Amino acid sequence: MLALVLACAAAWTPGSDVYAQATEDELVEADEVPDEASAPDASIAPRDEDSAEDGTVTDEAMLPEETEVAETPDPWRDFYPPPDPSFDWIKIVSGEWLKGEIKSLYNFKFEFESDELDTLTFDWDDVLTIRSAGPQAVRYVDLEQSDAPLIAFGNLVMIEGVAVVGTGPGATSIRRNQIISIAKGTQKERDFWSGEITIGANVRSGNSDLADAAIFLMAQRRKAENRFYADYRANFSEAEGVETSNNHRINTYFDSFKTRRWYWRIIFAEYFRDRFQNVNNQVTFGTGVGYDIIRTAKTEWDVSFGIGALYKEAVSVEAGEDAGNTSPAITFGTLYDVEINKWLDYYLKYTARIVDEENGQYIHNLVTTLSSDITGALDLDLTIVWDRTEKPQPVESGAVPQQDDFRFTVGISYEF
Q1: Cα radius of gyration (the chain)
Q2: Minimal CA–CA distance to 261: which of 223, 304, 231?
Q3: Using one digit for the tens of pLDDT, what is the confidence trace for 93-141?
Q4: Residue among 387, 323, 331 nearest 359 (CA)
Q5: CA separation (Å) from 345 to 150, 156, 384?
């Protein structure tokens, strides 16, 4: 009996396998049926669209809802200067307003003078708004009215590509791309003029003495319907006290615009002197026409054709020859001017003339310049000049001057 009691007590020991199995079964049942107090509240469970597949809440669900932010208006967008009877106003592409005086629009270059910033030049495309204080002469083309350019006179206002000239019932509305030029509508003569001065020099002393000088002067008068141009170019050279170069050339012409591209060169004239080429005096004059092949804000290319006469007087001639001769002259010319970038320009001007053999048969003149901005109105100019006479006239001794004459100059130019 005692043995039977001891055996039953051993079977119910807590560390036995039977007890362990019963304990594990109870734990499993407790996991499967959790206590209601510890269960999560279904009312705060995450929404399906904000929950991941494993039931966790995503970052988006924790973010606050987006709110629309009201756009702050730009106070400068609709800014417009108040009425000003003393100064012209312009707005450029950067959004800046400038106060000063409109000088001109010519060849897609708009000149504006400011008291503080001096004379400024803008590409026509960079000027967005204009309001003038006084009358302007606006030259424009309207093929519906006339093949020839028209001129409107009055106060100028241009906004968003449309210009209005004048006020009241007589005002003229013009699209921006119809405008050819703008000039002062007042009678102040100085407003029509501009010019350039270029001076170059080279002096050397020591084993050899050398002195070179070059000068270039240019002036032009520009109005809406015509233009006047004149320039003077001279070169002087001396080596060991002996003159080796001395030449002068004056060019002038007067143009009247007939259409947007065609112009009548009412008169042109040229004076040339170079004793080393056996030319004591040479005068050419005539009339002709011209045509603009390209005329944009950065590039100008035109050609011209003219007929006239040439008179040439030689320094010396062979025995029995006349020192002076007059010949009919046919003239062809072209001008190419391009703005390579903001600080570098290239210029080329070429003229050819056909005359009789006594005056040289074919006469060529070419000027090409590379101009680089230094500061303000000052530029550094590198210029090559080429003159050629197909049949130079022999001097008294029978010697024949060379056909070609080249000159290279470095100069500082000032525009005004």
Answers
A1: 44
A2: 304
A3: 988 999 999 988 877 889 898 888 888 889 898 999 999 998 998 988 8
A4: 323
A5: 31, 31, 15
CA distance 88 to 148: 29
Per-residue buried b or exposed e for 115-141, using 16+ beta carbons within 10 Å of the residue's own CB: eeeebeebbbeebbebbbbbebbbbbb
> Which residue, among 124, 118, 80, has the nearest Cα to 104 in the 3D structure?
124
Taking CB atoms within 8 Å and a gap of at least 24, the contacts of 267-271 are: 268/306, 268/308, 268/331
Give the DSSP per-residue string, 337-391. EEEEETTEEEEEEEEEEE--GGGTSEEEEEEEEEEEEEETTEEEEEEEEEEEESS
Kindly report, residue by residue over 207-226, the tens digit of the pLDDT: 656 788 999 999 999 776 78
Burial of 362: CB neighbours in 10 Å, binned 0-12, 13-18, 19+: middle
Beta-carbon contacts of residue 67 (< 8 Å; ≥ 6 apart): none
Chain CA centroid to CA 280, Å: 42
Supply 134's token pair. Answer: 């006084």
Beta bridge partners of 243: 238
Tokens of 50: 């904000």
Please give the Cα distance from 332 to 267 (Å, whole number).
Answer: 14
Do the beta carbons of residue 381 and residue 303 sit within 8 Å? no
User: What's the pLDDT tens digit per position in 59-94?
Assistant: 545 555 555 656 666 676 777 888 888 999 999 998
Domain boundaries, the chain: 88-187, 192-415
Amino acid present at 143: L
Cβ atoms within 10 A of the Cβ of 217, count? Answer: 15
DSSP string over 287-345: EEEEEEEEE-SSEEEEEEEEEEEEEEE-S---TT--SEEEEEEEEEEEEEEEEEETTEE
Please work out, in degrees rounded to the nearest 5, the angle formed at the alpha carbon of residue 324 by the alpha carbons of 321 and 326.
115
- Kindly state the tokens that stand for 62: 């924790």
Kindly report the length of the chain.
Answer: 416
Structure-token pair, residue 407: 């000159």
Q: Give me the CATH code for the 192-415 domain, please.
A: 2.40.160.40
- Whole-number Å distance between alpha carbons of 314 and 392: 10
The residue among 69, 24, 407 whose CA lies nearest residue 235 is 407
Per-residue pLDDT reduced to its tens digit, 150-173: 889 999 999 988 999 998 888 999
SS3 content of the chain, % helix, strand, coil (to 5): 15, 55, 30
